[in-house]
Design goal:
- By secondary structure, this protein is of the alpha+beta class.
- Helices cover 53% and strands 17% of the residues.
- A five-stranded mixed beta sheet has the order 6-8-9-11-10, covered by helices on one side. Strands 1-4-3-2 form a four-stranded antiparallel beta sheet, with helices on one face. The chain has a two-stranded antiparallel sheet with strand order 5-7.
- The radius of gyration is 46 Å and the shape is rod-shaped.
- 18% of the residues are buried.
Length: 410
Amino acid sequence: MKGIFRQVTLKTRITISFVLLMVGVMGVVVAAEQLDYDDLRAYVISKGLHGEALQIEGDITKGLQPSMKAGSRLYDSRSVPSTLLQYQPGYHNVEQPDVWHLLVFDLNGERYYLLQDAERYAYLEHVIDAYAAVVILFCIFCAFWIGRLTAARVISPITRLAEAVQGKQMPFPFQDARDEIGVLARAFAKHSDEAEQFLQRERCFAGDASHELRTPLAIIAGAAETIVHQLPAGSHLIASSERILRTTHEMQRQLACLLLLSRDPHGLARTEILLNPLIEECMLRCEPWLERKPVALVLDAVGESRLHTNAELARSVVWNLVRNACQYTDEGEVRIVLRGGRLTISDTGPGLPPSIDPRHFERFLAGSRQSGEGLGLSIVQRIVEHLGWRMTVKSSDTGCCFTLDMSGAT
């Protein structure tokens, strides 16, 4: 039965579920309508009158004066009002001038009339109203139960598929189903395969690039360092050779950073690092960008701040943000404020170009003064997300302020 049910489309299942729900509710309503409330009321009152009549018959048979209950009257053929003479033996409902209930019976050749006030049976109205409320509540409960049951059967495949996708369980269930769930499962499986292939290609590219470029960069760095040391003092090539050496070292760091960025964030090696020495190292490396510029590079830190993270990626983020601030600030101040796990880097430069949205850094946006060194802000943002940090940016024509919240990193 379940196999047949799964072959039906989700739309048809929902339709069948609503039809079954309506059938169930209407069945309860029809069953309730079959009860005649007047017949039920007459049956209860008749039973009460007959019970009292049996007690009266017992008293009369024993020669005792019948004991009457409150609201009851007993007449014989001599004392009966003329209005009651027309009623034959049995139960009767007298409505004029007031509502009374009458039971006519014969005993020892004598006819008796037992008349009861309707007030005695006023509780029946409350019982009937309560019965109607019970029927309504029962219908609501049945509708709720049937609705939950059918919804669970309809939604359970979606829930199971969602759990499989979230838990990365391969292969995904229901891929062989013919309904909409099967279409969705196959789409998820296809998308997952494409994403996995893309990630695999990216990992292979990062690994191959790292392996193939590492040796040439080491050779370039060694040659540049040799040139720097062999050039005579005062040579006009010293500045260029130092720049080649500095850029080569930076490329080696970038290569290592990009390789780490291609890995799973949960698999990154994390250690306890001191932020103060890391920031001071980045400030020292920024001195070439501050030469012959009236710019003060200030570190405002209270105490030693420790952070459990990947040292290489953390150094790359701080270095690129500090370097950008120093590079684009012509005068004024670059201030670095460290308070626990919160780092703020502000400058008095021209701010971000209008083409760059501070809330979303696009890749490959060329600035007017790019030197080709360092990582772009889009990659810095990716590293920040990779480490589990948060970065906010405020930019204006009087400066730019980057704030790193590293307290939520795991």
